[in-house]
Specification:
There is one protein chain. This protein is 27% helix and 20% strand. The chain has 789 residues and is of the alpha/beta class. The protein has three domains: 373 residues, TIM Barrel; 202 residues, Rossmann fold; 136 residues, Immunoglobulin-like, CATH 2.60.40.10. The strands form six sheets. Strands 2-1-3-4-5-6-7-10 form an eight-stranded mixed sheet.
Length: 789
């Protein structure tokens, strides 16, 4: 009887062997050129008719010859879906055909990793545009963010994408920075917990999450994009690094993107102590470090620390960068020549290659049964592209339902004199530049604002109702008069008189103000759209003041990417509702809050300034950063971090501290009761702040160390118990090591950074104790029915 034998396959293709052994065998069989080819990407755009991708021509790069490159292999494909509007099914077919071309062209049959942006949803034509990260922060709800990210990841994976360039874990240090909308907030613990939840969701779908921008980008001088970061080592360690630390340790992120910035003269892309010493040697990160777009070339052109492209490549590789993105520049011929000349050792290429190929192996890209056909095209007739058009839906009802949930939880009610919720108004004056603008809910990394604006003849691809549309549906019996008043930033005052007339003839004014997202000066918020001050753009403040003078109650609604000073409106508006680019269901979420159909439960992830010029400032300031008698500038915010009102009231009571002393390696246990004393269902957000009155180095007056959402029916009460590890009191000491010091602390249970409700004074005893990245990171919250409920 004949025995069937399986043809021998190369070790690197055999999933029965350990990944490390497979990778070592593959590296040993590769030429230098084949090794280098795995360390760069090529920027491509999917074909609109399902054909192979074409190289994307960018004004910063020369044309790429794929025929010349592909025989050596290719590490990554840059944004096949996110470069031009393409039907998702035809984009998936285009990617499939391109991967087939790549694998057949190189002798090892290695496909490329396809990466995409996913900062507010999969950045592809026709995909759901979710709320921006600043709205994620406003939810104070990691669970909903985790579920949203998993949905985004599933859509990406279904069409053949492997890696997502999100989340942004930069902590806001200056709200004038244009990319504030891309961040989660101004507090490292909030950024860390929400960002880690996003990573967990994305990774659960099989997408490699990419943490960015590592590190210090948001600490740029004067809030200017890509400016130097003047932060000290302690600010970096205690404010900017913790979110990355948490997302790697608890989120399982498999990639990190270096920052553009330089800190104390050292660019992040060439910082070996950061990318290797801290990230890998100390934290144990074993994934890939990818370049921010053109960031390696910037070592020569912008930072001036490299004399030529080979120097830039060598500096980045030595520091710990593994992959050049978005396209080949320094890691191509210049790197090969540098190795031949002995300027760059081949060992640093092998080190980066081991990480890249290891990740490809874990993605299944080296397996013998790997197929370029993505799940969404499984079983489809691939020979009839036009029959595929419209067959893949990336904006399904379940996506939009998740987008609605996030948007509703992110709406922040800043003030309310009782005007909200609106009680069936008969006449509404709907005024402002964002009242009838469909894209006012979108951030700069949404596909319509990032790419679609360059293709004005192509439909937006998703349903984007304006606030006028949703208010008309929400108040079907109301007479709604619309007046633009002024543009977002055109300074035009010619429409103010019409807006005031509409206000005088109405029962209530809804003034819809804020931003227009864009890129590099084409918007008032977004990458490269930095602000000189935090005054409302254009003539919007003049319009708002004129409406306040009209005598009709004004509800100020903000659709924005950053907080703005609102002048008189802080005290004179009947209500102020803040929403940070809330995505496809954003206007419906706002209409629901205005009518009372839904109750607001969002909290501010960034402080709202009282004046436009007292920057940079965040709630994390030390004592000298707060108002004093020796400066005429008062940085006290109009609304502090964590602030947000509801349509009910809550009473906090019965604080119990189990023991007021604990050792520096111990913990405290506290409990309090929160009761809904109003007549409506509502959600309170219990926030825990730590105040360290005496420390060996200057500390913020307070910092967030925990939080929990507490939903309560009218009259309902819950007992909230919290365990506070001493590790949460740690900070970077004078010797550069993280320390827990004995001494007195205040644990403030608060409704916001400006609204403490209950305070426990406790004491840490025993010796000073050093901790590291393995320290405890969280307070533990448990909720249970109150005994008298």
């Amino acid at each position: 009887m004949a025995v069937e034998t399986t043809p021998e396959i190369p070790l690197w293709n055999d999933p029965a062997h350990p990944v490390a052994a497979r990778v070592d065998a593959l590296i040993g069989a590769m030429t230098l050129q084949e090794k280098i080819a795995q360390l760069y990407g090529v920027w491509v755009g999917a074909s609109a008719n399902g054909g192979e991708v074409a190289p994307h021509q960018h004004d910063m790069e020369e044309a790429v010859d794929l025929d010349a490159l592909l025989p050596s292999g290719l590490g990554q494909l840059t944004r096949p879906f996110g470069t031009a509007p393409v039907d998702p099914a035809l984009g998936a077919l285009s990617l499939l055909r391109t991967q087939s071309r790549i694998t057949s062209a190189n002798r090892f049959g290695i496909p490329a990793v396809a990466h995409e942006e996913c900062l507010a949803g999969f950045a592809a034509w026709g995909a759901t545009a979710y709320p921006v990260p600043l709205s994620w922060g406003a939810t104070f709800d990691p669970d909903v963010v985790r579920r949203m990210a998993a949905a985004i990841g599933r859509d990406m994976r279904s069409v053949g994408v492997h890696q997502g360039l999100a989340p942004v874990l930069d902590v806001v240090r200056d709200a004038r920075w244009g990319r504030v909308e891309e961040t989660i907030g101004e507090d490292p613990y909030l950024v860390g917990t929400i960002g880690t939840a996003y990573v967990q969701g994305l990774e659960s779908a099989g997408i490699v999450a990419t943490l960015k921008h590592f590190v210090g980008y948001s600490a740029s001088r004067a809030g200017r994009n890509l400016a130097p970061s003047p932060m000290g080592a302690r600010e970096r360690a205690d404010v900017l690094l913790p979110p990355f630390e948490m997302a790697i340790r608890e989120g399982g992120a498999r990639s990190v993107m270096h920052s553009y910035t330089d800190t104390d003269g050292v660019p992040a892309a060439a910082d070996e102590s950061l990318l290797t010493g801290l990230l890998r040697d100390t934290w144990g990160f074993d994934g890939t470090v990818v370049a921010d777009y053109f960031g390696i070339a910037f070592l020569k052109t912008l930072h001036g620390v490299a004399g030529d492209w080979a120097d830039a490549a060598g500096a980045a590789l030595t520091a710990g960068v593994d992959v050049e993105l978005p396209t080949v520049k320094t890691f191509g011929a210049p790197l090969a020549e540098a190795v031949a000349e002995g300027r760059v050792p081949e060992s640093v290429i092998d080190r980066a290659l081991r990480r890249v190929l290891g990740q490809k192996a874990m993605l299944g890209l080296l397996d013998p049964d790997w197929s370029p056909v993505p799940p969404a095209l499984d079983g489809a007739d691939l020979d009839d592209p036009e029959a595929l058009r419209g067959k893949i839906d990336l904006d399904r009802p379940e996506n939009r339902e998740l987008a609605r949930e996030v948007a509703e939880k992110a709406v922040v009610l800043l003030t309310n004199d009782g005007t909200l919720p609106l009680a069936r108004p008969r006449r509404i004056a709907l005024v402002g530049p964002n009242a009838t603008e469909a894209t006012a809910v979108l951030g700069c990394y949404s596909f319509p604002q990032h790419v679609g604006v360059q293709h004005p003849d192509v439909p937006v691809g998703i349903d984007l109702p304006t606030l006028r549309d949703t208010l008309t549906a929400e108040f079907p019996d109301a007479d709604i008069t619309v007046a633009r008043g002024t543009g977002v930033d055109d300074g035009d005052l010619s429409g103010v008189a019409e807006a005031v007339d509409a206000a005088r003839g109405a029962d209530v004014v809804i003034a819809v103000l804020g931003d227009r997202a864009g890129l590099f000066g084409r918007g008032t918020s977004g990458e490269g759209c930095d602000a000189e001050s935090l005054a409302l753009p254009g003539a919007q403040q003049q319009l708002l003041d004129a409406l306040l003078d009209a005598g009709t109650p004004v509800v100020t609604v903000l659709l924005a990417g950053r907080p703005y000073a609102l002048g008189r409106a802080v005290a004179e508006s009947a209500a102020i509702v803040q929403s940070f680019f809330p995505g496809v269901k954003g206007t419906a979420a706002l209409a629901g809050v205005l009518s009372g159909r839904t109750a607001p439960s969002g909290r501010l992830p960034v402080s709202v300034p009282r004046g436009p010029g007292a920057q940079p400032t965040t709630y994390l300031g030390a004592r000298l950063a707060h108002a004093s008698e020796v400066s005429n500038i008062d940085p006290t915010p109009a609304f502090g971090f964590g602030h947000g009102l509801t349509y009910t009231t809550f009473a906090w009571s019965d604080l119990v501290v189990d023991a007021r002393e604990a050792s520096t390696d111990g913990e405290f246990s506290l409990a309090l009761t929160v009761r809904n004393t109003g007549e409506r269902h509502g959600t309170e957000v219990v926030q825990l702040y730590l105040h360290d009155p005496v420390a060996s180095v200057v500390q913020p007056v307070q910092r967030l160390v925990g939080y929990t959402r507490v939903p309560l029916a009218p009259g309902e009460a819950r007992r909230v118990r919290v365990t506070v590890p001493a590790d949460l009191a740690s900070f970077t000491g004078r010797d550069g090591r993280r320390v827990v010091e004995p001494g007195e602390l205040e644990l403030r249970l608060a409704a916001s950074s400006t609204d403490p409700r209950l305070t426990a004074t406790v004491t840490l005893t025993g010796p000073q104790r050093h901790v590291d990245h393995t320290r405890r990171l969280h307070a533990g919250f448990v909720q249970e029915p109150a005994a008298d409920a």
